[in-house]
Structure formats: C-alpha cells, structure tokens
Automatic annotation (TrEMBL):
<protein>
    <submittedName>
        <fullName>Replication initiator protein A</fullName>
    </submittedName>
</protein>
<dbReference type="Pfam" id="PF10134">
    <property type="entry name" value="RPA"/>
</dbReference>
<dbReference type="InterPro" id="IPR018777">
    <property type="entry name" value="Replication_initiator_prot_A"/>
</dbReference>
Amino acid sequence: MSRHKLNLLDRSAFAALSLHEKNAYLQNVVKEIQAVRGEPYVPLDKDALSRLRRFYSRRSFADLRLNSVKDDGLRQSFSSLAESIHLGEVKRIITHETPSSPRPVSRPAPLDDDQLMFFVPAVHDAPVKDDLNLMDIAPFSLSKTVKDRVLRYELKDSIVTIEGGADVGLATAYDYDIFINMVSHLAAEVRDYTIAYKKGLRPNVPARVYRPSATELLKFCRRSLGGKQYLELEKALDRLQATRVKITNLNEGKRRETESFPLIGRFRVVSRTQQDRIDQVEIEIPTWVYDGVVSPDGRPSILTLNPAYFLIARPLGKYLYRLARRTAGDGEAFYRIDDVHTRSGSSLSATKFRKTLEQLVEDCKADPLPDYDLEIRPGTNGKILHMQKRKMADVTQTALPA
C-alpha cells in the first residue's frame, strides 16, 4: 500500500470560487481520486456535489448526512472520498498487490464539453491544426517533473535541439495544446480572409497577435473550468515562451544552417479576475508559425488533428498520435521501437521505454487512440511499432453492441 498526495485548494481559495467552478473542481478531485485507486470515473450528481461542497468548506463529516444515504455502496463511497479530501491523500494499492487491468488512455470529456459558451465558438470551432515540421518528434517533455532537460534529436537531414528555460523548464505535452490553439486560431483567420478576398472584399490580413480569454483556451483544449486549471495556465505560457527549438540542417552530414525560434512569442496578461486568475491574455505569434500558416502559395504547413487528441491522458499517447498523423496519414507507417524511443525524447532507458510502449499499445485495445490502431510486431532488427488509420467500417463495428 502506498499513498498519493492530493494537491488541494485550501478552504479560503475554494470559497472564492463560483458555484460552477466549485462543482468542476470537485469533479476533478473525484476523478483524480478514482484514477489513483484504479476505479472508473463516475461523475457526481447534483446531490453529491451539494454534500461535498459543504464538507469541503467546513471539513465536517456531519455535512455529508451519510445517515440519509440508503445505498450501502454509495454511503461507503461518500465516506471514502471525504476521508481522502480530509487527509489530502489517497491510499493506493501497489500494482503487484492486485491483478493488473488496462489503464484508460484517454480522459473523459468535461461535463460541459458540448455546451459552448456564446463567446467561445470562434476558437473552439476552428479546425485543429499542428505544425507539420515538428510532428515526427516530440517538441515537448513527456515528463512533468524534469525541469532542466535538453532534448536533442539527430535526424537524417537535421539536428533538432529543444531547450527549456532555466527557471521554468521545458513545455509539456499538455502545454503544447495551447500552441495548437494558437496555430488553429491563425488557420481560421486565414480561412476567413481567403473567403472574403474571393468575394471581392478587402479583408484585413490575419494579425500577428491574438487575445484569447482563459476560458476560450481551456474549452478549446477540452479541459474543465476549475480554479486549478486557471492557475496552471500562466505557468504553461511561461514554459511555452521559454522553450526554444533549434534546427541545424545537414548537407551530406555537414552543418549547413542553424535556426532558433520559440514555441510562442511574447505574451502578457491583459486582465485578471477578482480572484487574481488570468482572464484574458495576449500572445504574439512567432514569425516561423505565421509564415508557415499564412503561406504565399496557399498551402500552409499544417495538418488537421482529431479534437479527441486533447482527451489523450498520457504524454506518450499524444506523441504517438501526432507521429501517426504525420507519417501514416490515411494509410500505415512502421517504426522500430528504438527509433520511436529516440524521437520521443523520453528519459526512460531503452528497456523501460519498450515496456511502457508495449503497455500503452495493450491498453489501446480497450481504449484506442483517435483514428489510429497500434500494434507491436516482430522485426528483423527488433520489434516494430505498426500504426494504421482506422477504417470507417471498423469504427462502425466497434460502436455496435456486442
């Protein structure tokens, strides 16, 4: 038995949240507790949220009114959740103490995921894009804990180095969702400009700076609107701005040209809420992104992603989806596991990475990645990762009841 520490808001910070934010925050806490225990996520209903709100504010078990809960299982569940919140930790069973079961690869969508607020659709409905040139490597850290790592990829025709800031570290796979939002926003602006231009109008060229609200960013990335998400947003922007990509092109193995650029340009917080959380930000789009999307030949260097990409809960899963989208496309692609290890930037040893990858592929049988099926196959020089676009017939078949 081990213990998982919960990073909970104190009672004063919880009290400052709105009712909607309190409910979203509690749902996320319960989701984390259930994930640690290896239990399926079961959202709280209105009555359960009301009980837990009162308990969280006062830490009095009497507020749970357990005597009024007739179902023994539900009563035990309430008591267990409250105990975890009260202690600030979750008792976790060690993996070898219980039979293994597939871990979810994706997280559930937020409760209000399909209820777009009236000021969000301009961003949320934009086609999800990603920069084409960085999709076959991981331009982000697969870890949240290592701050000062430098990622170095020695590819066939270039050397790519990704370095984070000394104080904030590398951008993570989850931070990179905001980068995708920036590219998607610009792609939508280019689309609207092109349509207006073809109609004979004189539209303004897409701006190099855009001002999303924190709510727009979170909804686009399909995250809940809890208080913790707003607190993490500014840290994510710091890491994105500090993370620089350096590409040295090679000509017959010799260095030819080096270019360095940030994932995002300058940003500033335009306004904050009364709780001192980000309300609106201003982000400068780097020249390399702007020129790649606002392409003079009309063919931007971007690919469309499945919006379910944002629900992938494992950083390695996010990287593999991007790799499959870039290389398999509408067909299939093969990579030696050693090559996947190198391109992922993972700090794990080759043996541990192989086991981690094999477990992810196994878990994908029950909870597959969007669009693509993964399979480990034997190869001449070691095992191979096979990635194939899922056929529509397969999607239809899996949707039918057994």
